[in-house]
Amino acid sequence: MYAVQLAIVVTRETKASGAGTLEEKTMSINSFDNYQLTWRPDKRALKRPVYVALVTAMKDAIEKGELLPGTKLPPQRELADFLDVNLSTITKAYKLSEERGLTFGVVGKGTFVAQNATESIIIAKTASADVIDLGLVSAFDACNKMMVPVIQAVAGQSNLPELLNYDAPTGLPAHKRAGRMYLERFGITDVKDENMAIVSGGQNAVTVTLLGLFRPGDRIAVDFFTYANFIEIAKMARLKLVPILGDDEGMLADDLAAAASQGLAGVYLMPEGANPTGVRISGARREALAQVVRDNNLILIEDDYEGFLKLGLTPLPKMYTLAPEHCVYLCSMTKPLAVGLRIAYIVFAPQYRSQLMDALMNINMKTSAIDSEFVARAIIDGTAQRISQAKINLVEQSNAAFDEIFPEPEASAVDNRQLFRWVEIHDTGMTGREVEQHGLNNGLRFYHSDRFLVGAESAKKYIRVSLSSASTMNELTTGLTRLRQLLIAGGYYG
Questions:
Q1: What pLDDT, in 10s, does the model give residues 217-229?
Q2: Domains of the chain, start order
């Protein structure tokens, strides 16, 4: 059904050269009385600037449940006619709604309400004695005690006062030397001091990079399912994330190239184990993706949070070594050592130094030199390597326990070094939040795939199951057994 268009003639008297004349003007009026729009904002409530007021009204409608996730918004021209505003006003409103994470656009199909338009998808620890946590990806806290001797040794050092001032905001030279020693294990070599910084953990590294190198409205390519906290940080920075499809070898290089031809500023990758899918990018795919990055002058963010777990497996080149002039390499020490030690190393191309340093100073002022001293000492005396090996042993045991309880192909993984598993489930018609709540009601926390979507919908549904947050192996196996029973009983699995 189309809006009814009426034509009327307006006659008015004008004056020209002192003589009275009549001027006729034909005006077009669209009647929407019998026309179904998926969203009919109250035009009387719109204040200037109208495009901003429209986005506010859209957010309110989403929060009230009047606009549901996946709803296709009215075509821009029809909404402009309905509100009697310029088409450019609607175009600006839709663009702003995408920047704020409320909507996503599909070329040739229209604009849709995002899956997580107004809900926070940040993943954080929530204490509850009644719930087994299979949601948060932690790092085997039982290993934390291995850091205690290091901390005690640092506490007895005579140079403690020097670690409590504003000196060396990007990291003390001795701490950077230790960091370079650690990174050499991953093939990151010949790093100059001026092209390296120490920041306050992996998430802080992401924040510094996004705010330093990108501007509001910039487009960054990500995996179709990607790290939930990255989505939230990008939303805060008003960056547009562009989901790129992938396969068992990682993000599709041809699809990245196609997106780059439409305008991209950068790409975010987790080559050693994508969060949440666990996919490890193959060597050939890394080469192909690096070529796209070089050809299109993209900023490549390589998040190597899980690299320490892959030591001993088939070595694959870091993206940084394939496109060093375009790369910002992030290596967090929270997972390898202890999540309470908020330290990460950033290695970057010289062209990015000035912008990253400005962002680092504005956000952090200075990373904790005490934390950095703990980490540096652990690297130098071998504690870091011992803790990493202990965690590799635990992650292999955890994956073996998972495979015993979930032997089906729908729950398989590429290797046994995963901090979490990605399990395909049946679509029961429930929303992702409802599925998660069903788990919580039964004493289990896990996360639904909707939480990791960048706006676009997915025909397939999954849950991410953490293997690294349970206090003991017994608690993990108990949780996994109960999870399997819950999924089967609820019609999600089997």
A1: 999 999 999 999 9
A2: 1-30 (no CATH), 37-119 (1.10.10.10), 132-142+385-489 (3.90.1150.10), 148-383 (3.40.640.10)
